[in-house]
Description:
Elements: H1 2-26, E1 31-33, E2 44-48, E3 52-57, E4 62-66, H2 75-101, H3 112-149, E5 159-161, H4 163-184
Helix pairs in contact: 1-2, 1-3, 1-4, 2-3, 3-4
Amino acid sequence: MASGGLQLLGFVLAFLGWIGIIISTAMPQWKMASYAGDNIVTAQALYEGLWMSCAMQSTGQIQCKVYDSLLKLEGNLQATRALMVAAILLGLVAIFTAVTGMKCMKCMEDDQVKKMRMAVFGGVIFIIAGMAALVATSWYGNRVARAFYDPFTPVNTRFEFGSALFIGWAAASLAILGGAFLCCSCPRQETSYPPTRGYPKNAPSTGKDYV
Length: 211
């Protein structure tokens, strides 16, 4: 029962992490314009994401523009896109794999060993998906931080971390943690030793010797 509860907890955490990765990928707030400087502009807020750039006016109106050409984008942005999409696809595969190996499901009940292996395999895929999302968000955040502290970057073109990055970091951590729980939920098989063979007892001596 304890392993089943740990398995369910791991799947829920990993599933929530996968949902968070999707939300982070779709959000345009990967980086937001920084107004830390002499020229403070509060009329609008600028955001940039993996797929579009947006400007929010002080009235609350948001205008977004999708990036025109894929080939004109920076290589780092394309790599971040690829990692996040790969994390989403891997998470989808991990969901179907882990559900097949869940103890609460009736699939593969005739072979418990394969069923447990499917749950562990799903946990491993969740960990890989979380690592891909963690690498993508950390790589993107590192580029934003380096550009912000670069003295040659104009003040009016500096950006800070957006909310999508924080969601991506939290989602990747949940996916990795949930996958680890799934891997640890497989109970260890106890080694069965053959029963010890007793030695035959000697018959009691009658005190008579036979020739």
